[in-house]
Design a protein that fits this description.
Radius of gyration: 18 Å
Largest sheet: 2 strands, antiparallel
Strand content: 15-25%
Number of strands: 8
Strand order of the largest sheet: 1-2
Order of helices and strands: HEEHEEEEHEEHH
Amino acid sequence: MAGGGGDWSFIYRSPIVFYYTFETGERLPVYEYYLNRFWRKISVCCHGLECKECCHKWNAGLKDNGYGEYFIGRHGGKVRMVHVHKLMWICHYGDIPNGLNVCHNCPGADNRACCNINHLWLGDDLDNMHDAVIKGTISNGKSHWHALNPEKI
């Protein structure tokens, strides 16, 4: 029995599509049931999946920082949520290599809720930070926490 009662075992009888590998190395099976639900929560633009210009918006849960997140199951008694842009990358290309991040490159401005595979790329931590500084999506200089709160340093 899963939360709220009822028999949810049908989920775990659906085929495993792939395994999601967390940064810790832990692997969690992603069942077809959850993947079908995932695709229904994305708004694709009128140009279709191959569009390189428009963002494909995630229409479900967003974290406080604007990134889309999605429930892919329970493991070890814990609810497991993943970033939707990472899940989209894995759906198309397989595992994310160790040490790399899935980064956004949306036309106009990065959209953290975007799932368009054409707007995603792989980069290491330095690439990701450099990209964020160039795009102004990371605080630095006068807007950095240290500059705004010198008395707390």
